[in-house]
Amino acid sequence: RFGYSEFQNTSVRRTIVGAMRKEISTKGGVEAGWSARRDVGALHTRLVPGFVVNTQLETGARVVTFGNGRIGREPIVDVNEETRRVVWSAESDRLTHYNASAQVLSGEGSPTRLVWIADFLPHEAANWIGQMMEQGMTVMKQTLDALAEQAKDQT
User: Fold this and answer.
1) 2, 70, 48, 81: CA torsion to nearest 10
2) Distances (CA, A) of 85 to 36, 56, 102, 144
3) How far apart are alpha carbons 147 and 18 in whole angstroms?
4) What are phi and psi of 129, to 5 degrees?
5) How far apart (Å, rounded) are the C-alpha atoms in residues 31 and 148?
6) Whether 40 contacts 62, CB under 8 Å
7) Residue 79 in 3-state DSSP?
8) CA dist., res. 67 & res. 49, Å (int)
9) How big is the chain by its Cα radius of gyration, in Å?
10) What would the pLDDT profile of 56-90 be if each residue is shown by its tens digit?
11) Do strands 61-66 and 71-80 pair parallel, antiparallel, or not at all (unpaired)?
């Protein structure tokens, strides 16, 4: 889903911010999903292998190499155990602003869900950001579902 939100400050200036929300459901439990999501330095091995091919940790950030060859530095804003939510930003020559969060959610009797929300500028980046988020969520679902199947087979 894609939308524009308008922000109007005290001046006459109006900025259009691109906003995108993606959600998946997985067979995996909330603890397994959170364990993989919160491990910010292991995207390439635990959460989205292939979509991300390398992750290097730096002080306060990670450097991510994507499967398409792009490399980006992503400062980590917060890893919140209580809400099972990771927040990060991205530094890129293609973006003037990027802030995102991913949260692992569950409810009684419902599957584990993972929600990824991104706000970005310029809003014209929506097509390629949307494609990357779709690819990432597809791999994430496959990875978490496979982990759930492995755990089921071991019991």
Assistant:
1) -70
2) 12, 20, 6, 17
3) 33
4) -65, -45
5) 11
6) yes
7) strand
8) 9
9) 16
10) 999 999 999 999 999 999 999 999 999 999 999 99
11) antiparallel
